[in-house]
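User: Could you check the structure of this?
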Amino acid sequence: MSHIRQMKGQFKNIKHLMNAAEKCGLERIDKNTYQWYGSWIGDHVTPEGWTPQEFKNQAGKCDFALKVRGERDAYEIGVVQRNGKYELLYDDWGNQGQLLIDKIGYGGKELTEEYNIAHSTALARKEGLRVKRSTNAQGKKTLVLED
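Assistant: Sure, the predicted structure tokens are below.
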């Protein structure tokens, strides 16, 4: 059974997305399909901004994929450029899906957070600020901006 999910977030900058992917242990694979269950079941809500038919036709297709480095059995993230941003689609079902979730967090939380950090860091540096990143014992990430 397939459960393709759409990662929440505004992914507009490919450089920041690739930086975030690297931090999460993912690598870019230039291909037009991504690894998933492989069969559209249609048993869950269609992602935001897609019609059911549109999404069914897109299932498993992408502009490029993000793969868990060194883990050939893990499902992948399909990156689809659409409406001026990158949509991240992935299947979280079964052991293969869990291998991906272990890297990106439930709902892609870790990947989204790393993207936001990369984006914020770039904006701060553009304004001439220095950026210090730290992570506390509980795993909370913090950015400190300095003149």
